[in-house]
Predict the 3D structure of the following.
Amino acid sequence: MPRPASHDRAKKNSKHARERELFYKYLTHKGLKRTKQRDVVLELFLSNDTHLTAEDIYQKLKHKHSDIGYSTVYRTLKLLKECDLAREVYFADGRMYFEHQFEQPHHDHMVCTQCGHTIEFFNATIEALQDRVAEENGFTPTRHTMVIFGLCRKCRDKGP
Ligand SMILES: [Zn+2]
Ligand SMILES: [Zn+2]
Ligand SMILES: [Zn+2]
């Protein structure tokens, strides 16, 4: 049974509230002030579910918020990463993307090299196999990223 959308929205709101709280606490811990600029970057990050680079975020903000420079965006994202709200992922284009980390279960990615579309997936068998391979090499894995490159369904259907 699909849950009503309002339920999901309420869940998301309370998650965002916890993310905000964590960020403000982290700022205090670092002796940094809560500024309007940092708040704007935080809110844009929270309201986006996709993978964004610092440049993407800067481009989205620059018209409405001319007082926010690229370096503010970048530094705020770094803070989000330091307090575990965001994580960095690298795709085929070598750019650094930020995605949600807070209460986000582990997942890996498929990236279309034609249009840049990303698919998130989780496969327990692959995860277990990775652990086994590590074990066989006397290696203790602490984290990993896996990216599979190729063509998405839409680009594949378009043909060469
Ligand atoms: Zn994985
Ligand atoms: Zn594609
Ligand atoms: Zn992702």
